[in-house]
Amino acid sequence: MKIGIIGTGNMGRAIGVRLSLVGHQVFFGARDKQSTEFAQSFAPNALSGSLQQAAEFGDILFYSIRDVPSAGIFSDLTVFDDKIIVDLNNGPIPEGYHYAPIVESKTEKLQTDIPKAKVVKAFNGLAMEVYDLPKETLQAHNVTIFVASSHADARQKVASLASDIGFTPVELKSNHSARLLEAHADLVRQIMGEAKLGPMAHISADVLPSPEGTVVGVRQTSNYK
């Protein structure tokens, strides 16, 4: 798969390096040459250049530029037509972790900004340090990547990339669900900092075994949905 990294900061570099190391064609794009050269030092088979070149190269683009309208960066937004855009952005951490309610996700805003693209929310709930763990460790700990998009084909391709690295993908079938994923990331960052669990903390989806019997009584009919 041809992967373009739009913004080669910590997260863009971490994801791009891991995807390159498992055999995907990766192009690191940034506004400064220093960050792309640093990324290439960990992924020697990857390419690098401008944001525009990365957008032109990739079939799937990882978008890690936060709160800047695409039209302010790219002169021609048709470069995104029919491409899969993975939005991995979260909002800033406020003082005291007093997050405001999310009434429109960054994913929904990006989809409005580039309507002919297929925007997916994913890879926003883990710190970049997690990407140093080998595939076997990620699989053993069932580390989840939540993938939300209204575009089924795009969602499935992004889920497959997550599996390639060693994550367990869980798909949600609407861009609207990106609001939940951004709130999820806010909680993760709060437990990393306020609860002092550090950057390796994560919240994943797991399924427990069914009980052999009941000690609390079976579920009763309720008016609550």
Automatic annotation (TrEMBL):
Name of a matching Pfam family: F420_oxidored
Entry keyword set: Oxidoreductase
Keyword check for DNA-binding: no
This protein's GO CC annotations: plasma membrane
SUPFAM superfamilies, per database record: NAD(P)-binding Rossmann-fold domains
GO annotation, biological process: copper ion import
A single GO molecular function term of this UniProt record: ferric-chelate reductase (NADPH) activity
Keyword Repeat: no
Pyrroline-5-carboxylate reductase catalytic N-terminal domain: residues covered: 2-91
Protein name in the entry: Pyrroline-5-carboxylate reductase catalytic N-terminal domain-containing protein
Native species: Marinibactrum halimedae
Lineage: Bacteria, Pseudomonadati, Pseudomonadota, Gammaproteobacteria, Cellvibrionales
